Fold this protein.
Amino acid sequence: MSNQELEELRSKLDEINLKLLELLNERAEIAQLIGHLKTKQGMVKFDPVREREMLNELVKHNRGPFDDNTVRHLFKQIFKASLELQEENKNKQLLV
Amino acid sequence: MSNQELEELRSKLDEINLKLLELLNERAEIAQLIGHLKTKQGMVKFDPVREREMLNELVKHNRGPFDDNTVRHLFKQIFKASLELQEENKNKQLLV
């Protein structure tokens, strides 16, 4: 009985994992487009002010159970991965 | 013109950020429920086999632009935060 409950919760987690993956990649695509635009305009990629604004907005909307510090930590990792993706693309362009 | 394009892309990112936040907290709630069940059944919280299975499933569905290592890294952070949340709740229960 309880094992069935556990299995049901786990399959919900699996569903959410895939939704998260999809959203993360969708986000990464948009970050890439922003990177291309910034390259064209000669703008720097890393914008600490914009990043802080995004984090503040996220914390403002955070209703838990993750606390604000965890939300900040997880999104900083996401921002960092997106920035690395933009840099990789820039390096690829330099190699062409 | 291009600044408008940048603003549009940024507002899409903001939307996705909030959706990610919502899904992350939804995921955290389910992880908490799993934690409670495991406590009741005297099971250990950290399950490396289950974690590896989830990561494999995510990598199998990854269509990029994030590469598989980045997907693994980001989800490991999410799993870790969820586990910490389960441990915090356990400590709170011990204090009551």
User: Anything to note?
Assistant: Chain A touches chain B through 50 residues (CB under 8 Å). The radius of gyration of chain A is 18 Å. The longest helix of chain A spans residues 2-40. The mean pLDDT of chain A is 92.
